[in-house]
Amino acid sequence: MIAEAIVSRLNLDQGSLAGGAVTERHLADLKGCFADERAYRAMLARDNPLLYRVSSLEPAHGEDQLHYGLGVLMPGKVGREYFLTKGHLHAWRPAAEVYVGLRGDGFMLLEDEASGESRLLPLRANTVVYVPGHTAHRTINTGREPLVYLGIYPAAAGHDYGALATRNFRKVLIEQDGQPVLLERSAVS
Ligand code: S6P
Ligand code: ZN
After folding, report:
1. Residue 172: which CATH number?
2. How many whole angstroms separate alpha carbon 158 and alpha carbon 135?
3. Which of 59, 102, 129, 176 is the least crowded, having the fewest Cβ atoms under 10 Å away?
4. pLDDT > 70: what percent of the chain?
5. Domain count of the chain?
6. Whose C-alpha lies nearest to ligand 1, atom 11?
7. 110 alpha carbon to ligand 2 midpoint, in Å?
8. What is the domain extent for residue 18?
């Protein structure tokens, strides 16, 4: 049997994926993610902007299937730190993922769960990032426009936010003299 949602339209201007289930994350949902707690609280006291939206399609279920989602991450900063996604490990740790950059300008921050080693990789149009299994991943928008990307992952991957909620990523991407600079979290918080 051929799954029904076998073809879907992307609209990069609207950042939409037809038929996708939409999840929105606002500033208040990212408590503990940004290094500068004071800047976070000050911004939240004024406003609770939308930081990103993910439209996910799950055409079929089972360990041999794929799911995919269109992410739209807004431009902006909390203090000097660029807007970012919460970031996660896959609940099924070996599950890898492919990110396809479609629009905007940003990075993916990867962190190997076992060694804690970090990699910062560009994410923009015409760029594909392979996220290996056992690797925490977060998307960061360093541009002035929404960062739009497609993530394709095993249907069985799942999300584990808990492991990072307590310790967070070791590195932080901040703006310094107009440029993104990757620093140790301990150096900025
Ligand atoms: C799912 C994939 C993406 C993220 C999206 C939002 O495996 O990596 O679709 O869900 O970038 O990030 P997060 O960390 O809030 O799920
Ligand atoms: Zn993922």
Report:
1. 2.60.120.10
2. 13
3. 176
4. 97
5. 1
6. 71
7. 11
8. 3-187
